[in-house]
Amino acid sequence: MLHVVCMTKKIKAYQNKSSLKEFLSNSCASQFLSDCFQTYNKQKVVMPSDLLNLFSLKIYAKGTQLVRAGECWDSFSMIVSGVFRLYYLDKEGKEHTKGIFLDSEILAPCAPSAIGKPINFYIESFIETQVYTANYKQVRKILESTVWGRSVLIGMLESILEDKVEREYTWLNLNAEERYLRFVSKTPRIAASVPLYMIANYLGMTDVTLSRIRKRLKNSLDKMGGRNG
């Protein structure tokens, strides 16, 4: 989704390992998982071995649906590289993007309606995506047994709430151009990582509308540059 303090430098270090086997076989994996938890946590992270051992590395090809509408979302995943998109599919078959997740983010159900019940949206890998994944209930059970683990769960809920408040504000108070500018300002990494049509879909506009907005903004900048030259 549009949350989590990003660990760009760290994630690049993980990805620069010579192979996934090397990544999995040394302490880098443990550090990566700890860092992911730390982004949501106000307490010092101490990764218990029983929690670490729950996770395994998986690779999803582009276009793989991790979960479909009508299925239960039972995984707890940490993205090593790639992009996941969450979207609704309306009665006419039109997609509506509800969330975008990048590397170093945790992708797991948090809302009561998504835990242990069939969800009403899809989760799909937009490009080839590598994740550490485990069973959600097993991870949650261990997290709930520790102070820092409970802090992680609270942090995840707080992040989702912040996302919802932000999106509600932009939809109710800003026009299309203002929504785009705010999106780029607040989530520059996502804006630089996904194609424009996905951004347009997430912002509730057509790609044609977004193209016009970008052209208008570019023309305005060019005029300003001409006056200052």
Keywords:
2 domains; alpha+beta; 10 helices; single chain; 4-stranded antiparallel beta sheet; Jelly Rolls; 49% helix; disordered N terminus; 229 residues; 8 strands
Structure write-up:
The protein has 229 residues and is an alpha+beta fold. It folds into 2 domains: 8-172, Jelly Rolls (Sandwich); 174-229. The protein has 10 helices and 8 strands. It has a 4-stranded antiparallel sheet with strand order 1-8-3-6. Strands 2-7-4-5 form a 4-stranded antiparallel sheet. Strand 4 and strand 5 (95-101) form a beta hairpin. Helix 5 (136-144) packs across helix 6. The protein is globular, with a radius of gyration of 19 Å. Residues 1-21 have low confidence and may be disordered.
Entry summary:
This protein is of the alpha+beta class and 229 residues long. Helix content is 49%, strand content 18%. Helix 5 (136-144) crosses helix 6 (147-173) and helix 9 packs across helix 10 (207-228).
What is the CATH architecture assignment of the largest domain?
A: Sandwich
Oligomer: single chain
Number of helices: 10
Name the helicity range. 40-55%
What's the structural domain tally?
A: 2
Q: Give the terminus-to-terminus CA distance.
A: 41 Å
Order of helices and strands: HHHHEEEEEEEEHHHHHH
Low-confidence region ranges: 1-21
Q: If strands are numbered along the chain, what order do they take across the biggest sheet?
A: 1-8-3-6
How big a fraction of the residues is strand? Answer: 15-25%
CATH classification, class level of the largest domain: Mainly Beta
SS-derived structural category: alpha+beta
